Amino acid sequence: MSLQTAALERVIVRRRYADRLFRICAVLMLLIAIGTLATLLVDVFMAGAGRLSWQFVSSFPSRKPEQAGALSAIVGTLYMMTLTALFAFPIGVASAIYLEEYARRTWYARVIEVNIANLAGVPSIIYGLLGLELFVRAMRFDRSLLSGSLTMALLVLPIIIISSREALRSVPGSLREGSYALGASRWQTIWHQVLPLAFPGILTGSILAFSRAIGEASPLITIGALTYIAFLPDSLLSPFTALPIQIFNWVSRPQAGFHVNAAAAILVLLVILLLMNAAAVYLRQRYQKRLSF
Q1: CA-CA distance, 266 to 54, in Å (whole number)?
Q2: How does residue 86 score in pLDDT terms, banded at 50, 70 and 90?
Q3: Do the Cβ atoms of 58 and 71 come closer than 8 Å?
Q4: Is CATH 1.10.3720.10 the right assignment for the domain spanning 55-292?
């Protein structure tokens, strides 16, 4: 009995050492990742902060780096993300409601769920190739704002569906059963009981998905978004550019002045991302407080 106890104690000691080693490795990897990110942010800030001005934000691109601005890229990014949200959010939430509340647990539903999960991990350039073939060539939208928005909508749609399903799944089943017991139909239960509780999670996941899309350059490059535009888009079929495309264009230039412009544009993009994430946190807290009353 004593031999078994001693062997068990040795196993416990080895597992404790392994657990401590794993924690140390995890903390080191986290510090390396945070340190790398902080170094990149400091480098970008030091390079581009001096270039930020109202002239930079309100001017069109130019062949002279000191006169170049990011107005067309900023406006194109805002237009594109607005259209992306209009296309992807209703379809994504409706798909999540159907899969979570209406679809039966059949093999067909399982195949759809597996495919949605796989699509969420597909590289973004694949969506760019799909948008090039479907929207630019087949539907003949050309290299327009509509093509870019639809391509980005396809990119974020699986993420919105997955996050919305998780939010719907977090609503207790007893709430649905109580609503049914009071005579409500399934849709009335979903609309008046389930969606209000799940909406903060749906909104947060969707905004985070849009935050990913706003920094993607490869799908826009693939569909042929322009890198130099000295005008603002005036319709859905107008050519456009976006901040990731403009940054890519400036970084590829040999002049040091364009590299400074690229750093300043990165800061503008980071500000937009932070505002979107702040909006997600604010809306989540607001709806949670409203539901608590």
Answers
A1: 16
A2: very high
A3: yes
A4: yes
As a whole number of angstroms, the distance between CA 43 and CA 36 comes to 11
Residue pair 267/44 in contact (Cβ under 8 Å)? The answer is: yes
**Residue 148 and residue 217 in contact, taking contact as beta carbons nearer than 8 Å:** no
Contact (CB, 8 A) for 243 and 217: no
181-194: pLDDT as tens digits: 888 888 899 988 89
Residue that is written with structure tokens 């008046």 in the block: 192
Work out the average pLDDT over 118-125.
87
Tell me how far apart the alpha carbons of residues 35 and 166 are, in angstroms, rounded to a whole number. Answer: 32
Question: Do residues 195 and 170 touch, judged by C-beta distance below 8 A?
Answer: no
CA distance 206 to 160: 5
Q: What is the DSSP letter of 50?
A: G
Please name the residue that has the structure tokens 């706003």: 214
Q: What is the spatial distance between Cα 44 and Cα 34, in angstroms, rounded to a whole number?
A: 15
R_g over Cα of the chain: 24
Q: Kindly state the DSSP code that residue 252 receives in the 8-state scheme.
A: T
Residue 292 pLDDT: 58
Q: Per-residue pLDDT tens for 228-273? A: 788 888 888 888 888 998 998 898 888 888 899 999 999 999 998 8
What's the whole-number mean pLDDT along residues 154-165? 92
Phi, psi of 239 (to 5 degrees): -65, 155
